[in-house]
Amino acid sequence: MYYEKLAALYEEIGKTSKRLEKTEIISTFLKECEKEDLKLVIYLLQGRVFPQSDEKKLGMSSKLLVRAIHQATGESTDNIEKGWRDEGDLGLVVEKFAEHKKQNTLFSKKLTLKKVVDNIQKLTEMEGTGTVNKKIGLVAELLSSASPVEAKYIVRTVAETLRTGIGDGMIRDSLLWTFYPNIKELREDREKYKVAAEELQHAFNVTNDFGVLAEILEEKGQKGLIHAQMVVGKPIKAMLYPKVQNIEEGFEVVGKPAIIEPKLDGFRVQIHRIKDDIKLFTRRLEEVTKQFPDVVKVVKDNVRSKDFILDSEVVGIDSKTKRAIPFQNISQRIRRKHDIEKLVKLLPVVVHVFDIIELNGENLLTIPLHERKKLLQAVLKSKTNSIYIIDQLVTSDAKKTESYYKECLDMGHEGIMMKMIEGPYKPGKRVGQGVKVKPVMESLDLVIVEAHWGEGKRAKWFSSFTVACKDGDTLKKIGKVGTGIKEKSEEGVTFLELTTELKKLIINEKGKTVTVKPQVILEIIYEEIQKSPTYSSGYALRFPRVHRLRLDKGLSEINSLDDIDHLFNAQKK
């Protein structure tokens, strides 16, 4: 397929904000795709060239894109940068200048999807001397052969700023509409449609690859989803747990008796082992194996199997007192690439394993939790200050649970988890299998969409941040936050840390405000949620404060507008 067809699809999708219309447009397009193009189309529609389970970074900054546009069009970098400042979108800039290319394009060829994807994927493979020029050359080669509209979407894809409003839910529904033979009947019956959507969503949660699912559906139909299997070494979506107000509500959700566990202040790590290969993944599916050689070693030494997937919480401990320390203190280990051995000694961790979801080739997702716990006991040997099976209480007694809850808080834990004793493991789900009970108002995980330069001694830092929640496949602003951020690294999230991260993600800059790619997530605490006409969510946070930086969470895990509605209504009560 030629890329011009996909560019035309982008244009058509951009003309409507209606979700059903977009889904219909995508479905119609997918029905006309050849099998060899399906996977590429799915990835490209979401502004990617890899599946979500692949964390490769393109590493193409806006400055390098300016040079690639210059090389392809012959336009001066000054003019390109001026256009970028005016438009705030390098895609629009290249579309304008591509109409009047000054370079000779006599020998250019029509672009295929494969050529576009191949060139962009190669950006991740560049290393060594001459890497920058090679990257510029790969993008410039595409832009030289592209029409103005094609060039616009190539640049947006490389810059990771393709804003089509196409999220996982829309891709899932588009696949349903395209490949389920009884889709007309399903769309007329809400309950049947929900079952079909959950079936496909589950297949995605264990593969994290809609491209592969599209190929399975095209070749084998709905029944082929049975072949969408968990693979050790490839992360799956973590099962998630909503917060409830109290222990009584917790029992109402999970039933009696329930498994009660401490809620630890650590970060979620999925541990995979196949033979001698051990891999560690965060809840946002990023591999962090190299950053935690100490975890790899204790797992290798203390788990009696060479084929498993474990779900765990990794908690930092004080090297002297051996007591747990807050997550924020060890978050720097997640992104550290150098001096790992030094950090291992400075910031040691303990692994608390609470679930097992694959063992010796057997998928355990549908096995009841209490049986999974028995398998965990059989294969894992606890070792002091290294690795444990998480503590638990099994009870139907609210008073015993309340006492255990207080013990957990006294030990410095955040609260408790209450889990359904017969519950299966449902990747990505927040419903029914377990809940968390915490003594504070529910915090919000929100993504930074704008940053604002400070003044005075903070003039070189971003000092306040506009944050947003998700609403379907779009983002809605809910306020600005600037408190809770520190100037010294040992005190928590710092202005320097956030500024360093966000400068890599700048899309546009006007005055003191920059628009950034929505990747940096903050956990925000607040006094109250208020109605507000100022922000697109319709809400604002009263006295918001940054609690911590959530390096372990991805954009799909931030709070939704529905969550905000629920909290606002509960607050009124």
Characterization of the model:
- By secondary structure, the protein is an alpha+beta fold.
- Among the domains are: 183 residues, DNA ligase/mRNA capping enzyme (D-amino Acid Aminotransferase, Chain A, domain 1, 2-Layer Sandwich), CATH 3.30.470; 129 residues, OB fold (Dihydrolipoamide Acetyltransferase, E2P) (Beta Barrel), CATH 2.40.50.140.
- Helices cover 40% and strands 20% of the residues.
- The chain has 22 helices and 20 strands.
- Strands 12, 13, 14, 15, 16, 17 and 20 form a seven-stranded antiparallel β-sheet that branches. Strands 3, 4, 5, 6, 7 and 8 form a six-stranded mixed β-sheet that branches.
- The N and C termini lie far apart (56 Å).
- The mean pLDDT is 90.
Task: Write the topology of this structure.
Elements: H1 3-13, H2 19-31, H3 35-45, H4 62-73, H5 77-87, H6 90-98, H7 113-122, H8 131-145, H9 148-159, H10 168-179, H11 183-188, H12 190-207, H13 210-220, E1 243-244, H14 247-254, E2 258-263, E3 267-274, E4 277-282, H15 293-302, E5 307-316, H16 327-330, H17 332-335, H18 340-346, E6 349-359, E7 362-363, H19 369-379, E8 387-389, E9 393-395, H20 398-410, E10 415-420, E11 434-437, E12 444-453, E13 462-471, E14 474-481, H21 495-503, E15 506-510, E16 513-516, E17 521-525, E18 528-531, E19 539-542, E20 545-549, H22 561-572
Parallel strand pairs: 1-11, 6-8
Antiparallel strand pairs: 2-9, 2-10, 3-4, 3-5, 5-6, 6-7, 10-11, 12-13, 12-16, 12-17, 13-14, 15-16, 17-20, 18-19
Low-confidence stretches: none
CATH superfamily of the domain at 255-437: DNA ligase/mRNA capping enzyme
**Structural class of the secondary elements?**
alpha+beta
Q: State the CATH topology of the domain at 255-437.
A: D-amino Acid Aminotransferase, Chain A, domain 1
Tell me, rounded to a whole number, the average pLDDT.
90
CATH architecture of the domain at 255-437: 2-Layer Sandwich
How would you sum up the major sheet? 7 strands, antiparallel
Helical coverage, percent range: 25-40%
Would you report the number of β strands?
Answer: 20
- What is the overall number of helices? 22
CATH class category label of the domain at 255-437: Alpha Beta
**What is the global morphology?**
globular
Q: Over the alpha carbons, how many angstroms does the gyration radius reach?
A: 25 Å
Distance between the termini: 56 Å
Q: Strand percentage, roughly?
A: 15-25%
